Amino acid sequence: MEFYAVKALAALLKPPGLFAVLMAATALAARRRPRLARGLGLGSAALILLLSSGPVSDVLLDSLSRYPPVEPRQMSAVQAIVILGSGTQRDLADYGGGTVSPLALERLRYGARLARDSRLPVLVTDGALNGHRPGAQFMAEALLDWGVRARWIEGRALTTYDNARYARDMLAPEGIDRIALVSHAWHLPRAVAVFERVGFKVLPAPTLVPARRHEGVLDWLPDPMALERSVFALHEHLGRAWYRLRYGADR
Predict the structure, then answer these.
(1) Cα separation of 193 and 196, whole Å?
(2) Which H/E stretch holds residue 7?
(3) Number of domains within the chain
(4) Domain contains 15
(5) Is residue 203 part of a domain?
(6) Are 233 and 58 in contact (CB under 8 A)?
(7) Where does the pLDDT of residue 202 fall: very low under 50, low under 70, confident under 90, or very high at 90 and above?
(8) Is position 217 within any domain?
(9) What is the tens place of the pLDDT at every residue in 145-173?
(10) Checking phi first, is residue 237 left (phi over 0); if not, alpha (psi -120 to 50) or beta?
(11) How confident is the model at residue 3 (pLDDT cuts 50, 70, 90)?
(12) What is the CA radius of gyration of the chain?
């Protein structure tokens, strides 16, 4: 029940749910408080434009990134690589029913590179709702495209905290507590915190680490991809706030 309540609240606090809430508030205020309605309307339009611009979305997302890329020598200190999933795409004819999401694919590509270079074993972790095939199984299949076979496939996790505790349950019996944790640079601070909280010694292994940006005038124009990056950033900020309250885990 908690899982669904948190997901529903988060959906209303970030786009597009946030925009729907603001539009509803504007409509309700229009008759009795027209000045408030005008303010809400103009504010909503400004917010949409800002969150849809490249420079703003980049600042929001880059502010969450704190770990540098992994250096090869650092991998000698870990025992296994853990790659975090990020959902799936289902009902696809060309993939026999489904495959990983674009975000998961980006993590898998980087994790596969680390695995090939270090020859360390790999754990993939991602669950599913409503009896669907776990995302971790799709992840394991995708890794084979890069010649990497996952040793452990954890398919119960629905949250980052689940990723951590279920990975611990699988790796602890084999004496593994030093891991390289693969996820997006903007997601890793929260992920590292919860993995350390359950007992792992973590080497952060971020992918898509931001470098110096070169923004142009056209980057300020509304763009759906920029809005998507802003949504990722807002989701992560909300997640960090919730994890601080719920688990006392944050960076």
Answers:
(1) 5
(2) helix 2-12
(3) 2
(4) yes
(5) yes
(6) no
(7) very high
(8) no
(9) 999 999 999 999 999 999 999 999 999 99
(10) alpha
(11) confident
(12) 20
Residue in 107, 50, 115 with CA at minimum distance from that of residue 80: 115
**Looking at the structure, do residues 149 and 190 belong to the same domain, yes or no?**
yes
Same domain, 31 and 52: yes
Nearest to 144 by CA among 108, 110, 171, 101: 108
Q: Exposed (0-12), middle (13-18) or buried (19+): which is 218, by Cβ within 10 Å?
A: exposed
Model confidence, pTM: 0.93
Asked whether residue 200 carries a pLDDT value surpassing 60, the answer given is yes
Q: Which two tokens stand for residue 210?
A: 């931001």
Dihedrals phi, psi of 167, to nearest 5 degrees: -65, -40
> Would you state the structure tokens that stand for residue 71, as one six-digit string?
């250096």
**Closest among 161, 108, 113 to 136, alpha carbons compared:** 108
**Measured at the alpha carbon of residue 202, what is the angle toward residues 200 and 204, in degrees to the nearest 5?**
150
Query: How many C-beta atoms surround the C-beta of residue 47 within 10 A?
Result: 15
As a whole number of angstroms, the distance between CA 233 and CA 240 comes to: 11
The pair of structure tokens assigned to 193 is: 């915190």
The answer to the question of residue 14 being in a domain is yes
DSSP-based three-state secondary structure for 141: helix
Domain interval for residue 113: 73-207
**In this predicted model, which residue has the larger pLDDT, 249 or 251?**
249
Query: For residues 211 and 213, what is the distance between their CA atoms, to the nearest angstrom?
Result: 6
